[in-house]
Amino acid sequence: xxxxRRRTTTTRIEVSSDRGVFMISVxxxxxxxxxxxxxxxxxxxxxxxxxxxxxxRLYSQKDVERLRRIQQMTAELGLNLAGVEKVLELEQQLExxxxxxxxxxRRRDELQAxxxxxxxxxxxxxxxxxxxxxxxxxALVRAKDLNRWTMPIERR
Length: 156
Fold this sequence. Notes:
mainly alpha
């Protein structure tokens, strides 16, 4: 007699990369650092873990990536923490500037499209207006009204 086969199912849960899910010991292991180093980085403002309702530090995937980046800058590039702080600050400034430039470029494109519409209208108005000269004076009139202006006026 054969035994019934067991079915196994796998449930996959997607977690936002900025949601705090790792406790300090797990985050430290993932970043290959000592937990005390993470506490020091938090004190210096290099990292800001989320907090559970009971106050436990919770690190996100983005936090772990940032920790790895800090470690790369200190170990491989030889930067001290003041240098790391400055690099991270400059990166934030650069990102804000990129977003501002993108917004300005979108606005430029909108204005350019608006200018093209207005230019088309201006050309149309210029084509519709003609100079009418009669006797001693002249006037600007709409081309379609020119026939009314050129009709002889009867005097009584």
